[in-house]
Specification:
- This protein has a nine-stranded mixed sheet with strand order 9-10-8-7-6-5-4-1-11, sandwiched between helices. A three-stranded antiparallel sheet has the order 14-16-15. A two-stranded parallel ribbon has the order 2-3.
- The radius of gyration is 21 Å and the shape is globular.
- By secondary structure, it is α/β, with parallel strands linked by helices.
- Strand 4, helix 2 and strand 5 form a beta-alpha-beta unit.
- The protein folds into two domains: 249 residues, TIM Barrel (Alpha-Beta Barrel); 63 residues, no CATH class.
- Helix 1 packs parallel to helix 2 and helix 1 packs across helix 10.
- It binds iron/sulfur cluster.
- The site of iron/sulfur cluster has 10 residues, from loops.
Length: 370
């Protein structure tokens, strides 16, 4: 018997939400009827069944959207298909994204018993006014209640997301949010700055949003890095902080240029050296699901990455994390000015960015790639 040493990850995209948040540009549909959700589930299961690999699966991530909006029974049916179609590593990390009020304690217990072992629950803010501005549909008290249910169901590996630089947000408001999450003992916290994306409700009223200026946003970022690190969280990626042993294995796999397969509308894949994506339209995805990854819209049309492209990706993705990238003479020469100005460091032959460097990572990476 040939044993494959290759490990890949799986991403499953569930593009349904109760309602669109004011800042959201992800592909997700609010208010879909049950018939579409069932057809989508059937299409996902067909696509999973049709895909063959002898790689072992190191992590699975159900993201969205808000996956429980599909219905927990349907999520479990998809997960069962993954378990019977693929060989899961013994320590496979299996994450489900949820929102407060999207799952009950009983459903969380069912998910834990089925094998999900990590929950990522959106928090965004501990301030009810900020939540309302963002268009979130819960209060902080409901968030805290939901987080207690997640723990009561037996989940230990838990992550939450926070957004900062919100309209009219003060530094005190940000500190209150961070301390609320820290006091709940959440071992993994991601903190993103608000980005105003085209096509969102925030975009259309961007001129009337009272957003912090760039200097204030920088100060907020340094403040949050400081608070997280003082409370024992490692800053292991631009936006991610974790207690030791709770880094997201799934995301680390992406940043290590590991291969993964995306199932579902708008899901991206990196497989056999090719990057490709499924169509971002639920109706077309349902119609095309029998064609698996070999439809003219995706896998077949994409070239295998060249060595130069792969090297560029290693720099781009590697510098997102504290693991950094291996240096050579040319990279040392190019990074000298960033090191001299406190944006980057080299330790034991590894180049990585500092907190200050993470703030301008795009321009540093662009210069290193020239
Ligand atoms: S819940 Fe998440 S995916 Fe859905 S609209 Fe809000 S931000 Fe977007």
């Amino acid at each position: 018997m040939v044993i494959s040493l290759k490990t890949i990850s799986i991403y499953v995209h569930i593009p349904f939400c109760r309602k669109k948040c004011n800042y959201c540009s992800f592909y997700s549909l609010p208010d879909c009827d049950d018939g579409i959700k069932q057809q989508y589930t059937d299409a996902l299961i067909r696509q999973i069944k049709a895909f063959e690999t002898d790689s072992s699966i190191k992590s699975i991530y159900f993201g969205g959207g808000t996956p429980p909006v599909l219905g927990v029974k349907r999520l479990l049916a998809i997960f069962e298909e993954i378990k019977s179609s693929f060989s899961l590593a013994e320590d496979c990390e299996i994450t489900l994204e949820v929102n407060p009020r999207s799952v009950t304690l009983d459903e969380l217990i069912m998910l834990r018993e089925a094998g999900f072992n990590r929950i990522s629950m959106g928090m965004q803010s501990a301030d009810d006014n900020e939540l309302a501005v963002l268009g979130r549909t819960y209060t902080n008290a409901q968030y805290e209640y939901a987080m207690r249910s997640v723990s009561a169901a037996g989940f230990v590996n838990i992550s939450t997301d926070i957004i900062f630089a919100l309209p009219e947000q003060t530094k005190e408001g940000l500190v209150k949010t961070l301390i609320t999450a820290i006091n709940m003992n959440i071992p993994h916290i991601s903190v993103y700055s608000l980005s105003i994306e085209g096509g969102t409700p925030f975009y259309y009223k961007r001129d009337s949003l009272c957003l912090p200026d760039e200097d204030t946003e920088d100060e907020m970022y340094y403040l949050l890095c400081d608070i997280m690190q003082k409370h024992g969280y490692m800053h292991y990626e631009i936006s991610s902080f974790s207690r030791e042993g709770y880094e997201s294995r799934h995301n680390l796999h992406y940043w290590d240029c590991g291969e993964y397969i995306g199932f579902g509308a708008a899901a991206h894949s990196f497989y056999n050296g090719k990057r490709f994506s499924n169509i971002a339209d639920v109706g077309t995805y349902i119609a095309l699901a029998d064609e698996c990854f070999y439809s003219p819209t995706d896998f077949n049309t994409q070239p295998v990455l060249s060595d130069i492209e792969k090297a560029g990706e290693r720099i781009m993705l590697g510098l997102r994390t504290s693991k950094g990238i291996k240096t050579d003479d040319e990279l040392i020469r190019r990074s000298e000015k960033f090191i001299n100005n406190g944006y980057a460091v080299i330790r034991d032959g590894i180049l990585s960015l500092t907190d200050k460097g993470y703030r301008i990572s795009n321009s540093i990476i662009a210069e290193l790639l020239v």
